[in-house]
Amino acid sequence: MALLKEVTTLVVNGTGSNHAGDYILIYGVSLDVTSNPSFSEKNYYIWWDTGSSSDPSISGATAIKVDIGASDATTLVASKTATAVTAVSDFVSTSTDSSVTITNTYVGNVTSSNIGTSNAISLTNTTAGTGSFISNVKYPENNAMYFIEGDKLAILSEVDSSGNQNTTARKSLKSIQEDLVEGLMIQYYAEPNSVTAITDSLDIDNALELSVVDYVKKCLYMDKAGKTADPNVMQASMAMATKHERNFKEAIQRYGVRKKDKTGGSRVVKVPNLI
């Protein structure tokens, strides 16, 4: 079952003057990429200012201010609300007539939106977000790993169900222990290591390393064939270039299917055989 984004529907029931200083509480899913990239719930409050309204300044929440006129019709208040909310990266919002639909940018279960102070706004939590942010593995780059067999993904961890390090050598790696209700979302940031020296290892699938050697040799032989004035050397070089190009293409056809192994998508999570 796919994880869901929280969707909230807000209906404006009065003109601008009816909303002066009012606010509602709404909860988004925020992505922190500064250190140890992770998702977490973030609290916001939407409030309406007719020009002289006071910010309710809700503790622990970030303000989303909507500037409106006292005589603004319900449709205009809704439109301005959607524009202000969409300006925040954790939400996408649209308006139709006096109705505003607010969709969280990321999937995840969050606290349901609720009215702070307003007699002219109605709220409905249209879709409940799914996906937990709580995990025993706090730093997956240190405590978790995986391997792939076909289209199956095996996830291992060095910590137990309480988040404590596995102690015995024979059981230092075990199947990850998590309570999953709606599914498991794995997200990671990675990029291949650059090659700066002839002694560096290529950051690619091991099965493709020799194919890179064939590709380089093909290019070298073609370069040699283009520079020589000897027709015999040219012919021999082109023959060798063709041979290495064929080896390269055969390796890509044989092992290149593995390129899809590290791309996103649905997978079957299997219990690994650690014998």
Describe it for me?
The protein is of the alpha+beta class and 275 residues long. It folds into three domains: 121 residues, no CATH class; 51 residues, no CATH class; 55 residues. 22% of the residues lie in helices and 27% in strands. The chain contains four helices and twelve strands; from the N terminus they run ββββαββββαβββααβ. The strands form three sheets. The chain has a four-stranded antiparallel sheet with strand order 5-6-1-8, with helices on one face. The chain has a four-stranded mixed sheet with strand order 4-3-2-7. Strands 9, 10, 11 and 12 form a four-stranded mixed sheet that branches. α3 runs antiparallel to α4. About 2% of the residues have low confidence.
Key attributes of the depicted protein:
about 280 residues, 3 domains, 4-stranded mixed sheet, 12 strands
Quick rundown:
The chain is α+β, with helices and mostly antiparallel strands.
Alpha-beta content class: alpha+beta
Strand content: 25-35%
Shape: elongated
Poorly predicted sequence stretches spanning 5 or more consecutive residues: 259-264
Q: Report the average pLDDT across residues.
A: 81
Q: Percent range for helical residues?
A: 10-25%
User: In whole angstroms, how far apart are the ends?
Assistant: 31 Å
What is the element layout, followed by pairings?
Blueprint: E1 7-12, E2 23-32, E3 38-49, E4 62-67, H1 74-86, E5 91-96, E6 99-104, E7 114-117, E8 121-127, H2 140-143, E9 144-149, E10 152-157, E11 174-175, H3 209-227, H4 231-255, E12 268-270
Parallel strand pairs: 3-4, 10-12
Antiparallel strand pairs: 1-6, 1-8, 2-3, 2-7, 5-6, 9-10, 10-11
Helix pairs in contact: 3-4
